[in-house]
Amino acid sequence: MNTLEEAELCFPQLLNSSCKKAMPAHSVALIIYITLSTICLLTVVLNLLVVISISHFKQLHTSTNLLLLSLAVADFFVGLLILFQIMLIDGCWFLSDLTCALYFLLDYIITSASVGTMVLISIDRYIAICDPLHYSNKVTQNRVQVCISLCWMFSIVFQCLVLRDNLEQPGSFNTCFGECVVVVGYFAGIADVILSFIGPVTVIVILYIRVFVVAVSQARAMRSQVATVQGSANISEYKSELKALRTVSVVIVVFLICLCPYYCVTLTGEDSLINSSSIAFVTCLFYFNSCLNPLIYALFYPWFRKSMKLIVTLQILKPGSCETSIL
Fold it and tell me: Most exposed residue of 29, 43, 180, 283, measured as fewest CB within 10 angstroms of its CB?
């Protein structure tokens, strides 16, 4: 009997203070392990291909692609975080309390930076569609790089403040050994919801409503325009912008679909338990979004498919490969 009880504990040597294992069925645990491992591998590899593609090929050094690069970096780290979810299949945390706090901190930073990047992408598309004549002057690579840097810096500083108590006293909110818990204060939680979710989502929705209204009106104007040489050039450029708008729109819609459940569940209570089934599900849904983004690029962007082929075949190692025509 004692042997059976000890087998159900995360730390059998600590009978009175150890947490109990989740003890899922063997078949269920195997399915979860295979699923998470597959998502982890695909997320890391695919987003690494995006990072290498945009970083290596000079033709891809555009303002919009720099924003996609920032998102790919965040998604790459998400793929690495899935490794911790794989470790938690039985519901036990075997690493240190400090590692637990850092895990949540990195998770919060990535989420905040991803949302911030989505806002920047929305602003980029808003200017490209609503003010195309001044787009090249307003949206420069230097300005985009500064905005991306500020977005990540703000996410790091803000989330460190939100989880300050957990970082100063790691494990202080655990009720047993083998548990990983962080507690966010009431006012810090409200600030996090407003700045990392409600505010950005509101901005994204408002901008995209405005963008689609302008896009529809401009499309109607283009159809009635006389096809002069200049007009044809304008139409071609406008179609290119619409194609980019369509792709990033899909990315943003999928992101919001995966993000909303994450916040709805994690913010229903004050405590965030890493071994909670609801938290695990919405976290995996958020993680899966990071795997979907590169697949969306592959579906809509010919340049990503071409650059991926060059990377896999190691042709990027050739001298001058960064000058290769991708577009």
Answer: 29
